[in-house]
Amino acid sequence: MLLIESLYTGDATPTEKLVLNFDARTKSRLRTTLASAEEVGLFLPRGTILRGGDLLQAKDGRIVEVVSAPESLLEAQCASAFELARAAYHLGNRHVAVQVGAGWLRIQADHVLETMLIGLGAQVRPVTAAFEPEAGAYAHGHHHSERGATEAKIHMMAGA
Hints:
Elements: E1 2-7, E2 16-20, H1 22-25, E3 29-33, E4 39-43, E5 55-58, E6 63-68, E7 70-77, H2 81-93, E8 99-101, E9 104-108, H3 111-119, E10 123-130
Parallel strand pairs: 1-4, 2-6
Antiparallel strand pairs: 1-5, 3-4, 5-6, 7-9, 7-10, 8-9
C-alpha cells in the first residue's frame, strides 16, 4: 500500500490523482485508492482539510493531486442579497459547511435543511458538483501561497 504523510508545495507535476468527496477530504487518517486503483493510506497531520488541487507527496516520492469528487448537493438561490444573506446566516447558525458562489449557496444534500431554506424563501435545486465549502473564520491552519496566507481550515462541529 502506498503511504502518504505530507503535503507537497513544490512545482513537480503530479503523476497520480486521488479523487475524494468532501467528507473524505476532512479525514486525517484514511485508507482509499488512487484513480489508478492503487491502494493508498493517508496519514496527514490532524485537522488537515484537503482541497481540490492540493498536492501530496507519497513515501516513494510520487506527487499526488487531490481531485474533489462530484457529490449530491443542494444549491440555494434567493430573490435578493438580503434573502441570500439570511439563508447563509441560518446555515451558519447550524454549523453547516457552505460553499458560496455568485448568487448561490451550496450545501451537502439534506432534506431538513432543504425544507428550512425553502421556508426562508430560497429556490433550492439538487446539483452534482465538487463541494468546496468556505473555510472557518477562526480555524487558522495550513495554507498554500497561491491561495493567500490567511486561508483557514474548515471548522467542523460535532453533529454538523
